[in-house]
Every structure is written in structure tokens, then in C-alpha cells.
């Protein structure tokens, strides 16, 4: 067996979590082989062309895809994991420290709106300025809302409002402690804190809101960014490239035909791949989490901008949250998030918009999202629709492998940062496994001067 | 106050081609004026991209030239590698026939990722490079054959040697000259049609943000 097929570490799966770990492990000087059975990068967070996406969805049981074929399949980057990135948090930190941020572009989120049964789409103020300017919020409510936002953005943990209320349902907390009216409380719960339910305990909601409020202003007014070309999948590819620059070897689109576990404590794993000349071996095997989270999804493509209420200009990266019970015919008990992206996210051709609808729930098909899509589109006819469900299921993992932490179920803005944290943990777990856990490792060593793309 | 220096035009170039044809060597010869002897230059480790400044038609141009990071070996180059490229350097080894015969496959991968004529991919300028002409004694591909392939696909052509530096500057100068000349034709306000994007696809897009460290960076594109 040649030296070329012997690795320190083999990682199975190129999802965002594994890709972050692969980059850090390769940079730490370990010899890494990174495998994926798919021909594309990104696993459950992949960005796919329209044709690849249709192939993917057609293989899922219970899915329904419209028969329409659209030209310029490659000009679409359709993400399997619609997500946004808080401007302050673990993923942005990893992107900057690893240098992966230089590989691609990002865009600010234009606005977040909420769907109201009576009023339709209502824009949610994103900043203090917005609140002052808003004509729809009565003055007394403005003052209460401001007081709450100051509380959440500050050192709330020390404040009397938090005494004994950590476990209080958040909806009740807003009423009891801040006298906020139902519609304002609803906007905070669903569209600022991205909670799934007013019953969520107060502490985690306020912690999340605190992070988002502190993210606003770093790169612009919105606390959130989306990466170009489908975000999560493109970012995963960036981390894989960084791993490759540090010597990592990439093998995609080959099925793993056998994995033999070591028989002695210091033995090696041997992995054979379909259509691959010889087996590859490693001392440490790493694989993606065994659990998928249950979600329902809809992807629609339209050829005109979706009106998000009164604002001028076509939204290019906007979010609309449907709280439970607001949509005629909508049966889901959890909030549904709609994410609309246009050409300037580089994920659609000119004059096309992608609408992603997603919700955390266990269901056999994505058809439950149809009423929500209708509420958003009103009279607009989509050029393409796909509805599908992702089941929460256990996938077997090889014995003895270091396994990454599962991600789901996640609230809409949380995927990016939880993936970054899981990537860091996976890196630390592997270092511990190979006996380097006691050494102090910087996850991301300083970038070399040659790598620095100096700015003008 | 003297007038501010004009902002440089950003140009993204890519290298592709089989393993061991000398892509990284060409890059390092051009940008760092160095040569790594073959026994030390195993499969690519450590070359990500290089930034190089030059002047074309009296105007500053900032090149970022990207290497494959070894991901060509099992043909797992990421789709993201190809994004936003305005020029592609397609390299083979004149002393290795197989690397020349692989060019059509690389060409079709290019058409997949940067697009063909119908999706604006023809705006991406390509140059075919026959490297290692210092190995004249073991040449397996004639200059005529190389030129014929380049002509057939409508690409520029240069023979070069990263080892002796012959032809290396020509590759980059000819390619960039043609990109600048061509971009003058399409880099107008309505250039957002088609698949070609400038500036690594970052500052050049409305609402685009460049993610860098520090505490407060507002949008670098238009702040809409």
C-alpha cells in the first residue's frame, strides 16, 4: 500500500460542520482525506444548480416538483439549508480567522417582515430609527418597545426584570414586565428573536435577541448577512478549499463500499471506495452526525419581485415570518420562515427570485407549506415549485468514529453559528482523540502574509 | 491636493489543468519570481492565491491569481473556485501527452462552471499554455498541435517554462491585455446580464458586503 493512501484522518461528509473541522485539522498539520459520496460539496447544506436540485428532490419520498424546466440551470445556486449569518458570532469569526471570508461575497438582509391574518405583510422595525419613524406604532408602545430593546441589548442578566423569570414563557414575560401589546409582542417573538413559539422560556430568547441586536451595525443596518451563491454550501466549499491548500485530499462522488475497523488499539481503519484504485487508511475516522432534523421545505422561483408591503424597491434578500395560526389553511404549529433572494445574492439569474419556505416539523411531505406560499405569492404565478420533507432519522455511524454534533432542529438565524460551534467542537474532539488535546491549539493559526489580499 | 490615484481594476484569474503540469510553478515564477525544484514541489501544498499589480493601457490592474490547491487531482475542484473569473489559464505539459489530451475535458468543465456562449461564459478569456518547454528533448506535444487546439476553441496560446521563465510573463500580460480590451466592450452599466461578474463578486454587486475583521465595517458597495 502506497504512502499516498495512508492518512492521519479520514472525514466522511462535506457538510459545513465537517468542512470547518477539515480546514482546521489540515492547518494543524494533519494529513486529511475528506470524502463525500455525493458528487457535490456541502452535504445537507449544499448549494445546487437547478438541475442538481431537481434530481435531489425527486429522490426524496413524498416530494412534489413542478414539471417546468427553466433555462440557465447553473445560474441558480439553490441551498438545501436556507440560512442567514448574524454579523457577530462564531461563523463570522471563523470566516475571518480562517481566511475563508476572502473567497466570497456577502449581502445584508434588506428587511424582516411578519405575516398578520388581518393586515397581511407588515414590516418589522429593524432599528431604533425605524421605530421612531414608524407611523403604525402608537407613541406609548414605541416607548415600551424601546425600553424592551434597550433591556435586551444591555447587560440584561443583571437587571431586576430577569429575576425569577428565566423559565417564564417569553410571551408572558413581554406582557408582564414590559406591558407590550399582543401585536408588538408577536413581532418581537417571531421576527426579531425568531422564536418558534411564545411558550419558549425567556432566558434563551433574550440571549438570542441580545446577540442579534449587537450584530446590527457591524456591516450595515441589518444584523444578518447572507453569503453569495447559496451561502452555507458556498461557505462549506471555502473551508474545503482551505483544507486543500493545507494539503487535504478531496475525493467526491465515490460510494464507500466497506469500512474495516481497527482490531488493535493502535490499528488503522481501511476504507474501500467504488471506482477507486486502492483502499485508503487512517488512524482516526470522523463522520457527520447521525441525526437529521425533521423539516418541511418549499422552493419556488418567480419572475417578478414579491411585494413586501409599502416599501419601495424589490427585496433582494428579505425574510417573512408566518407565526402559527395567521395563514388561512395553514396547519403548522410552528412558525414558517420565508426567505426571498434575488440576483444580487448571486444565486439567481437576472429577473428571477427564489423563495424558500421552511419550518421545523415532522411531516411526510412539504405540501403543508402550500397555503403559506399562496399567502406570499397572492396573484403571482411561480415558474417552478418544489415541496419536500426531510425526516428526522438516525443514520448508522462506523464504530469508533469521532462523530460531529447534530445541528437540528434550529431556528432560522441559528444554523450558521451552531454549525461553526459544532465544527470547533469536532476539531477539539479529534485533537483529543489523537492525544493532542492537552496542547494549546489555536483553531486558526495566523494567516500568512502572502495569503493576505490587501485592500486598496 | 494631488488627484487621487485611480482605483485599480480587479481581475480574477484561474489556473486549471492536470496534476503536475506546473500550474503552481507558473504562478510562483510570475508572482514571486521563484522556482521550486521538482523534487521539492510535490503535489500542491500551500498555494492559495497571489495578488499581483500591473499596469495595462496606463491604468492600474490588480490581479488575483488562484491555484487549484491540488483539488484537480481527483477532479473535485469546487464550483466556487470558478466564480467570478475573468481569465482562465489552461495548462498542459509539452512533455506529457496525456496532460494535453485532457484539455477537452478541462474545457467542458469550464463550460459547465463559467458557462458557454449562451450564458455569457464566452466573455471569460482563456489562454492555453504548453509548459515545460525546457524539456525540449522529451517533448511529446508540438507547438503546432497546441496552437491548433487553442485556435479550435478560440483561445490564446503561449508556450512557456516556469523553470527558465521563458514565456511566463507573456501568459499573464497577453491574457490581462485581452481581458481589459474586451471588458471595455461589456463593462457598461448593464453588464449585470450574463454570468460574468467582477471584483470576486463582492464590492461590485449592489448591497454587497466584504466580511473582514474588526468591529464596524459598513457596506463597501452602494449602501442601498
From TrEMBL, chain A:
One Gene Ontology molecular-function label: GDP-dissociation inhibitor activity
Family statement: Belongs to the Rab GDI family.
GO biological process: small GTPase-mediated signal transduction; vesicle-mediated transport
Gene3D superfamilies per UniProt: FAD/NAD(P)-binding domain, Guanine Nucleotide Dissociation Inhibitor, domain 1, Guanine Nucleotide Dissociation Inhibitor, domain 2
InterPro entries, per database record: FAD/NAD-bd_sf, GDP_dissociation_inhibitor
Stated name of the protein: FAD/NAD(P)-binding domain-containing protein
Pfam families per the UniProt record, alphabetical: GDI
Domain of life according to the entry: Eukaryota
CC terms in the record's Gene Ontology section: cytosol; nucleus; Rab-protein geranylgeranyltransferase complex
Naturally occurring in which organism (per UniProt): Cylindrobasidium torrendii FP15055 ss-10
From TrEMBL, chain B:
PROSITE patterns: ARF, RAB, RAS, RHO
Organism domain of life: Eukaryota
Keywords assigned by UniProt, alphabetized: GTP-binding, Lipoprotein, Nucleotide-binding
Residue ranges the record marks as coiled coil: none
A molecular function (GO) term: GTPase activity
Ranges where the record places region Disordered: 191-212
Gene3D superfamilies per the UniProt record, alphabetical: P-loop containing nucleotide triphosphate hydrolases
NCBIfam families assigned to the protein according to its UniProt record, in alphabetical order: small_GTP
UniProt source species: Cylindrobasidium torrendii FP15055 ss-10
Protein name listed in UniProt: Ras-domain-containing protein
Basic and acidic residues compositional bias, start-end: 191-202
Amino acid at each position: 500500500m502506497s504512502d499516498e493512501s495512508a492518512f492521519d484522518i479520514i472525514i466522511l461528509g462535506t457538510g459545513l460542520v465537517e468542512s470547518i473541522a477539515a480546514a482546521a485539522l489540515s492547518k494543524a498539520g494533519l494529513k486529511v482525506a475528506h470524502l463525500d459520496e455525493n458528487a457535490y460539496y456541502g452535504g445537507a447544506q449544499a448549494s445546487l444548480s437547478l438541475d442538481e436540485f431537481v434530481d435531489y428532490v425527486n429522490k426524496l419520498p413524498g416530494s412534489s416538483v413542478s414539471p417546468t424546466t427553466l433555462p440557465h440551470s447553473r445560474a441558480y445556486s439553490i441551498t438545501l439549508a436556507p440560512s442567514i449569518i448574524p454579523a457577530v458570532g462564531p461563523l463570522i469569526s471563523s470566516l475571518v480567522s480562517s481566511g475563508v471570508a476572502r473567497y466570497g461575497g456577502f449581502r445584508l438582509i434588506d428587511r424582516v417582515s411578519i405575516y398578520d391574518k388581518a393586515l397581511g405583510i407588515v414590516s418589522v422595525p429593524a432599528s431604533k430609527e425605524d421605530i421612531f419613524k414608524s407611523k403604525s406604532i402608537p407613541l406609548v408602545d414605541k416607548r415600551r418597545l424601546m425600553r424592551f430593546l434597550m433591556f435586551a441589548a444591555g447587560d440584561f442578566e443583571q437587571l431586576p426584570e430577569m429575576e425569577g423569570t428565566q423559565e417564564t414563557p417569553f410571551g408572558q414575560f413581554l406582557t408582564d414586565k414590559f406591558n407590550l401589546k399582543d401585536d408588538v409582542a408577536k413581532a418581537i417573538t417571531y421576527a426579531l428573536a425568531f422564536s418558534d413559539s411564545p411558550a419558549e422560556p425567556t432566558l434563551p430568547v433574550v440571549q438570542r435577541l441580545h446577540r442579534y441586536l449587537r450584530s446590527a451595525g457591524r456591516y450595515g443596518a441589518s444584523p444578518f448577512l447572507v453569503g453569495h451563491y447559496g451561502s452555507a454550501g458556498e461557505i462549506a466549499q471555502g473551508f474545503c478549499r482551505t483544507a486543500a491548500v493545507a494539503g487535504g485530499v478531496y475525493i467526491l462522488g465515490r460510494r464507500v463500499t466497506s469500512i474495516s475497523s481497527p482490531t488493535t488499539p493502535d490499528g488503522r481503519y481501511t476504507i474501500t471506495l467504488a471506482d477507486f484504485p486502492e483502499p485508503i487508511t487512517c488512524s482516526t475516522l470522523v463522520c457527520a452526525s447521525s441525526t437529521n432534523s425533521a423539516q418541511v421545505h418549499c422552493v419556488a422561483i418567480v419572475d417578478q419581485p414579491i411585494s413586501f408591503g409599502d416599501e419601495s424597491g424589490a427585496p433582494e434578500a428579505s425574510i417573512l415570518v408566518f407565526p402559527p395560526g395567521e395563514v388561512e389553511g395553514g396547519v403548522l404549529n410552528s412558525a414558517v420562515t420565508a426567505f426571498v433572494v434575488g440576483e444580487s445574492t448571486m444565486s439567481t439569474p437576472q429577473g428571477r427570485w427564489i423563495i424558500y419556505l421552511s419550518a421545523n416539523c415532522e411531516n411526510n411531505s412539504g405540501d403543508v407549506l402550500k397555503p403559506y406560499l399562496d399567502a406570499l405569492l397572492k396573484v403571482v404565478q411561480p415558474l417552478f415549485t418544489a415541496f419536500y420533507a426531510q425526516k428526522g432519522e438516525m443514520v448508522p455511524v462506523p464504530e469508533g468514529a469521532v462523530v460531529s454534533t447534530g445541528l437540528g432542529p434550529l431556528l432560522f438565524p441559528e444554523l450558521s453559528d451552531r454549525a461553526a460551534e459544532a465544527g470547533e467542537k469536532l476539531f477539539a474532539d479529534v485533537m483529543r482523540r489523537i492525544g493532542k488535546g492537552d496542547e494549546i491549539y489555536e483553531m486558526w493559526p495566523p494567516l500568512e502574509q502572502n495569503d493576505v489580499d490587501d485592500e486598496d | 491636493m494631488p488627484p487621487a490615484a485611480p482605483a485599480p481594476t480587479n481581475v480574477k484569474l484561474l489556473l486549471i489543468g492536470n496534476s503536475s503540469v506546473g500550474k503552481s510553478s507558473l504562478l510562483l515564477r510570475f508572482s514571486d519570481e521563484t522556482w521550486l525544484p521538482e523534487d521539492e514541489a510535490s503535489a500542491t501544498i500551500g498555494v492559495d492565491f497571489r495578488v499581483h499589480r500591473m499596469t495595462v493601457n496606463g491604468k492600474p490592474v490588480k490581479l488575483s491569481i488562484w491555484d487549484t490547491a491540488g483539488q484537480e487531482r481527483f477532479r473535485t475542484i469546487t464550483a466556487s473556485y470558478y466564480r467570478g473569473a475573468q481569465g482562465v489559464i489552461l495548462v498542459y505539459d509539452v512533455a506529457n501527452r496525456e496532460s494535453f489530451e485532457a484539455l477537452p475535458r478541462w474545457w467542458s468543465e469550464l463550460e459547465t462552471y463559467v458557462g458557454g456562449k449562451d450564458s455569457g461564459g464566452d466573455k471569460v478569456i482563456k489562454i492555453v499554455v504548453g509548459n515545460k518547454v525546457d524539456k525540449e528533448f522529451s517533448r511529446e506535444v508540438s507547438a503546432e498541435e497546441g496552437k491548433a487546439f487553442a485556435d479550435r476553441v478560440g483561445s490564446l496560446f503561449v508556450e512557456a517554462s516556469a523553470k527558465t521563465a521563458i514565456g511566463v510573463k507573456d501568459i499573464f500580460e497577453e491574457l490581462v491585455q485581452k481581458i481589459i480590451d474586451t471588458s471595455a466592450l461589456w463593462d457598461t452599466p448593464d453588464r449585470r446580464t450574463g454570468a460574468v461578474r467582477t471584483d470576486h463578486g463582492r464590492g461590485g454587486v449592489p448591497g454587497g458586503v466584504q466580511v473582514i475583521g474588526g468591529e464596524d465595517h459598513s457596506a463597501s458597495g452602494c449602501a442601498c
